[in-house]
Automatic annotation (TrEMBL):
It comes from the Bacteria. This is Ribosome maturation factor RimP. The keyword Cytoplasm applies. Residues 10-89 form the Ribosome maturation factor RimP N-terminal domain. The gene is rimP. It comes from Sphingopyxis terrae subsp. ummariensis. PANTHER family: RIBOSOME MATURATION FACTOR RIMP. Residues 92-157 form the Ribosome maturation factor RimP C-terminal domain.
Length: 181
């Protein structure tokens, strides 16, 4: 089992030293393909460049290797490290995410049923005093305690695409599909 508090305490300072904000640390894949997934972003752009991913991956690898050499490895056994941007239909993991992405559609799953429901899908209205507000497709308001949320993510919509500007599109017109002359 992985202790996420320990992993966050190791990984967050590495991201912060690069001026990045840690979005999520997850471990998945079971015994077949164990993967440590780290999502981070630049606070000013909410994105990450490929160089940022590579640099953060090296920093995390070096830190985890040093801990392993000291006999303090926080993860038993071999695993794959994956460092990425949260992407456009990003997970919502921090209270600030629910405020920053208010007005956009999201899917929210709770740890336990609330009002007979485990899942909510609708427009985020924000967060206040630890309570996330979401309006479902029928316009019904739901107040969900942040601590009761298991997972949440944005839904890919035209509105979200319009609100998410890439860092650079330089060279996009020069790209050729494989097999073309």
């Amino acid at each position: 089992m992985v202790d996420f508090d320990v992993l966050n305490a190791i990984i967050a300072p590495e991201a912060e030293a690069m001026g990045l904000a840690l979005v999520r640390v997850a471990f998945f894949g079971g015994e077949e393909d164990p993967t440590l997934q780290v999502m981070a972003e630049r606070p000013d752009t909410r994105q990450l460049t490929i160089d940022d991913c590579a640099d953060l991956s090296r920093r995390i690898s070096d830190r985890l290797d040093a801990l392993e050499e000291a006999g303090e490895d926080p993860i038993e056994g071999a695993y794959r490290l994956e460092v990425s941007s949260p992407g456009i239909d990003r997970p919502l993991t921090r209270p600030a995410d629910f405020a920053d992405w208010a007005g956009h559609e999201a899917k929210v799953a709770l740890k336990e049923k609330r009002d007979g429901r485990l899942r909510f899908n609708g427009e985020l209205a924000g967060i206040d005093a630890g309570i996330v507000t979401i309006f479902d497709k029928e316009g019904v308001e739901h107040k969900l305690p942040f601590d009761a949320i298991d997972t949440a993510k944005l839904v890919l919509t035209d509105k979200l695409i319009a609100a998410t500007v890439p860092l650079s599109i330089e060279g996009a017109d020069d790209m050729e599909e494989e097999g073309q002359d």
